[in-house]
Each structure stands twice: as C-alpha cells, then as structure tokens.
Amino acid sequence: MLDADFFDRDTLLVARELVGKVLCRKLQGVWLKARLVETEAYMAREKASHGSLGLTPSRKALWAPPGTIYMYWSRAGDSMNTSTRGAGNGVLLKGAVPVFDEGELGRAQRALMHGLNPRRGGGRRPEHRLCAGQTLLCRSLGLTIAEWGGRPFDREALYLQDDGYRPAPLLAAPRLGIHPERDAHLPWRFLDGGNLRSVTKNPLSARGAREGVDWWVIDPQSGEVRR
DNA sequence: CCAAAGATGCGCT
DNA sequence: GCGCATCTTTGGG
C-alpha cells in the first residue's frame, strides 16, 4: 500500500508516479481493482485548482495531510483526488483500466463493477471503457463523497498499490476541461501511453495533434521531456 | 441562478 | 474510432 510518505512529495511527482498504480477497493467482501492510466495535478498556486478557490468545508481535504481523499461532485458524478504536499494541492484520479483475477473471483469482480456502472440503456460497457473517466472510475468501484470524502486511504477497504507495472511511454498533456484564462496550458495531465484507448480522451488523436505542442513523452525518472 | 477539473448518443469514416 | 450537441447535478455567489 502506498503510504503517507508517497503522497508527501511534490504534486507533479506524485501525479506522474500514480500512473500505473492499482486502486484497490473492498466491496461486499470482494476486492475490486483498477490500474490508473490517467491523472492530473492541481496546485493551489494556479487558477484551475479547487485549492485556489480557498478553504471551505467541502474542500478542506485538500488542506489535510498528504494522502487524504478529496472528493467532489463533477458534472457527471463523484470524482476522487488525493491531497499531496503543500496546502491546497492534490492529484485527480482521472481514468483507469479494470483489473480482474482469474476464475470465480474474476467473475464476481466483473459482475460487481459492471453492475455498479452499467451502460445507460442497461447492459455492459466495453471492458476497456468501464473506468475510462474520473466519475466512471468512482462509479465502477462504488466510491462516493459521502463515504470517502476527507478520509485517508485504508488498507482494509481502499488503498493504492505498486505492483511493479510501469507505464511505457509515460505521456504528458494539458489538463482537460480548463478554461483558457485559468492556466489551461499547463501540461499537468499524465497518461499511460500503452493504454490510450482507456483514457478520458486520447490527446494524440485530436485533429492536428503534434508531439511537443499538444503532448510530450516524459522520462519517468527525471520527469523531463524526452529529446 | 449558473458555471463547472464530465458523459452520452448520434452521425460519419 | 472521431467530433459535436445535448444532457446532467451541485456548490457557491
């Protein structure tokens, strides 16, 4: 389990390193798992962040110790963040791929997650799109503001794990849904280039998207753009 | 009231 | 698989 020390570091470093980690959540006696393919960093000192809007009761988790869960209602549902080092800073868990075990356990995991997050008209989503979005991830793991907002991760019920997987290539891109005047240009969205069909929106497939302009390959050690 | 750190179906390729 | 219009719910002014 990633502990408080993991989160008590620079927000950009935490956001980068969270890509590829596994979010584990126990529900009805079954461990559900999803590997993060997409995160976004938000800092109180820039205008896109909720931290920059100031400390209110609903946002206080961003001021709580690193590794505290900050949840908020986005347009389409509940969204999950973790606080990091620095008052008002955090990382949004933006997309994932489900991880299923073999056999009977895997069947139970599939049934639970698809049941929690069915397609609108009923029926199943394609597996690679089940957690492809910040609210889809929360829905398919049964994560709500009421239950988890303001709490720390918990090895008995909800935690993040490093299972050795490393995204390759690691990509960076501007964050989604940010208005131009609110620091939209900052390339603080991090993606697993090997799982782009499971991200909210593939930054490489946008019309005219160019490396070095709309997206970058990042060296996972240094965090620098690869040249 | 209304902007907001989204999701969806639909038409097209 | 892509772009777009449309729908959604809530916190905060």
Q: Which structural traits does this protein have?
A:
227 residues; alpha+beta; 3-methyladenine DNA Glycosylase, Chain A; 5 helices; DNA-binding
Architecture blueprint of SSEs:
Blueprint: H1 4-7, H2 11-18, E1 22-27, E2 30-42, E3 69-74, E4 77-83, E5 90-99, H3 103-116, H4 134-141, H5 145-148, E6 158-161, E7 170-173, E8 189-192, E9 216-218
Antiparallel strand pairs: 1-2, 1-6, 2-5, 2-8, 3-4, 4-5, 7-8, 7-9
The structure holds a DNA duplex (13 and 13 nucleotides).
Name the CATH superfamily assignment.
Answer: Methylpurine-DNA glycosylase (MPG)
Strand and helix order? HHEEEEEHHHEEEE
What's the helix count?
A: 5
**Sequence stretches where pLDDT stays below 50 over 5 or more residues:** none
Overall average residue pLDDT: 95
Taken from the alpha-carbon principal axes, the silhouette is globular
CATH class category name: Alpha Beta
Number of domains: 1
What class, by secondary structure content?
A: alpha+beta
Measure the end-to-end span: 34 Å
Using the CA coordinates, give the radius of gyration: 17 Å
By CATH, the architecture is named Roll
**Fraction of residues in β-strands:** 25-35%
Largest sheet: 9 strands, antiparallel
CATH topology: 3-methyladenine DNA Glycosylase, Chain A
Give the % helix: 10-25%
Assembly state: single chain
**Total beta-strand segments:** 9
